[in-house]
Amino acid sequence: ETGVTQSPTHLIKTRGQQVTLRCSSQSGHNTVSWYQQALGQGPQFIFQYYREEENGRGNFPPRFSGLQFPNYSSELNVNALELDDSALYLCASSLGPGQIRDEQFFGPGTRLTVL
Amino acid sequence: QKEVEQNSGPLSVPEGAIASLNCTYSDRGSQSFFWYRQYSGKSPELIMSIYSNGDKEDGRFTAQLNKASQYVSLLIRDSQPSDSATYLCAAPLNTGNQFYFGTGTSLTVIP
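^ inputs. structure came back:
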């Protein structure tokens, strides 16, 4: 167990809808990263939040947005869902950029299906 | 060239054998490297991290890093059927805020 939790476990939405996924990081970890993992692929970096500010973004459109809160929780919001957004969404918590040990620990993931 | 590349496999080894998984990376500034294990339908689990050239051993797992060749590997000794999973190699950019993952190598250990 990594101490990182995510909700919900599974979610089914239709194209064009909006979705919010939630993550609770390990205590003491002030950095959260979100990833999208399509079937048969490695996780793709969406963005990272450090101390409630966005600290890097991958090649994802602006309809993917996030928030981080002071209580180690965070959200990933996706607007105008597309069929290709169907994937496993993972959050990972870590101590933060610049740390000597920058391991990231993953939550169990949210499986999103867009119909 | 992708930032992190792995042989996608699949790789099959008999129980008790050594499984060897390989990974190359493109960013010479990367300072840390990670191996994750992912069972089907589950999230990645960190099994090894390595920061310095050479070998790092943890139980049946040995990670090897060669920064000059931009190469990192994972050896699993005395492979067990429970080791059957997809193994992901990951490395952050030298800015530290974006992890790149390979596509993973699927390992099957045959009893």
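The first strand of chain A starts at residue 5 and ends at 7. Chain A has a mean pLDDT of 93.
thumbs up if we can close this ticket
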